[in-house]
Amino acid sequence: MSTRRSAGRILIVLAMLASLTAVPAGAHDSADGFVQDGRAALEARSGFGADHGASADRTERSRNLTSIGATDLDGRGGNADVWALGDYAYVGTWGIFGLLCPATGTAIVDISDPTNPWWAATAPTEPSTQTNDVKAATVDTPYFTGDLLVMSNEDCAPGGARGFEVVDVTDPLNPVTLSRYGPATTVNSPPEFAAWGFGTHNLFIFEQDARVYVAAVMDFSEIASLFFGIAPSGDIRIVDITDPANPVEVGSWGIVQDLGINPFDPSLFANPFESGPHDVWVEKGIAYVSYWDAGLILLDVSDPSHPTLISRAQYAAGEEGNTHVAVPARGGNVVIVGDEDFSPSFGGDNIWGFGRVFDAKKGLTEIATFDTGNVTASPALGDWTMHNVIVRGNTAYVSWYSDGMVLVDISQPANPRIIGQYVPAAAADPYGILPTAPEMWGVYVHGSLILGSDMNSGLHILKHVPAK
């Protein structure tokens, strides 16, 4: 497994599931397109990372990006995703089941003066729960008018919550939890575990036909369904939060439920936990689902109660996979995809996770890749894999762990090029798990501001200053 998602408990549950070999009736593998062997065709490198990759340099470095403000969030560590709305940024918290569970909730950071951001309030999470992903939006429905924060719930210790919280942040200094979507009990009974898996790892808030929805990734619920002999309910859930005090699931989709794919088939997946989705982004009625080793999947969610497959791209034989994030660009004609790979020695290729560019006009065709140089240099002291991405216009903004914040020009999608990078000074992990290195997890573009959340050092506020 080459991701930090729920790593500790995966080893435990793998043993529990090892005896399951039954294939669903009518099982088959369906695909519209095949990903090229990107590892053999890495291109469009800037070379910016190569000159410092093998060093132990822990100082701040930048090119065409300027840091204008930062906060270490009182040294709390364990910082996860970042989003922003109005004068406030929202920073989640990560954990590792059985190993790390700070459960410090979502930090609400005042960025009205971006040169002096400060932790102003907290949207609390449930006990023993991590909040990997956060999204915020202004909504206007017959039931609610104001600002909503949705934050994922994934248990990181026994008794933690699963699902997500819906929080009223119309007054960000006084957040009010309106509802929680998830199981009423934390007992791992078969029906509950099959329905909820390990909880929500990532989510996205979107509007469709004057209603407000959340698309949520429910970790490994389909695998659990197979194990317990229960009809799968899909790892992607569509939940109506038009009335945010009463969330209602209206639709679901999954590779077992809808394609009949068997996650326990070793010819398809190295292990079943490589078969589940990781992230989802919704735009113009299309859900872009990062389905890990099952590849990139596009769903039509214009009718949220009946998600349907549009297209799918799979990895070439021998590739490790790890589709971690996918975001549309250029009106949906292009998709920017990031692989997250913490096991560069897998298969002897010594390659960390990198970026891919897909043409989505007719099916899905990979047309380019991009990386920082450190992806193949495999330096010590850090994690050199791509993580999250936001696209604005012709620029992809990428949080790249120990390579910091990376800006990629995609004006020519088949020839992406790195045009900027900011690497914060290394900070120690207060929990002693991560290396003393930059660990940029999240990215969000808020007007002219670029926000980056570093797992160790907190929130960084940047501006792009192109070279003259």
List the helices and strands and how they pair.
Elements: H1 7-17, E1 33-34, E2 61-63, E3 65-71, E4 79-85, E5 88-93, E6 106-110, E7 118-123, E8 129-130, E9 134-140, E10 145-155, E11 163-168, E12 176-181, H2 190-196, E13 200-208, E14 211-218, H3 221-228, E15 236-240, E16 248-253, H4 255-259, E17 279-283, E18 286-290, E19 296-300, E20 308-314, E21 323-329, E22 334-339, E23 355-359, E24 365-370, H5 374-377, E25 388-392, E26 395-399, E27 405-409, E28 417-423, E29 440-446, E30 449-454, E31 458-464
Parallel strand pairs: 1-20
Antiparallel strand pairs: 2-28, 3-31, 4-5, 5-6, 6-7, 8-10, 9-10, 10-11, 11-12, 13-14, 14-15, 15-16, 17-18, 18-19, 19-20, 21-22, 22-23, 23-24, 25-26, 26-27, 27-28, 29-30, 30-31
Helix pairs in contact: 2-3
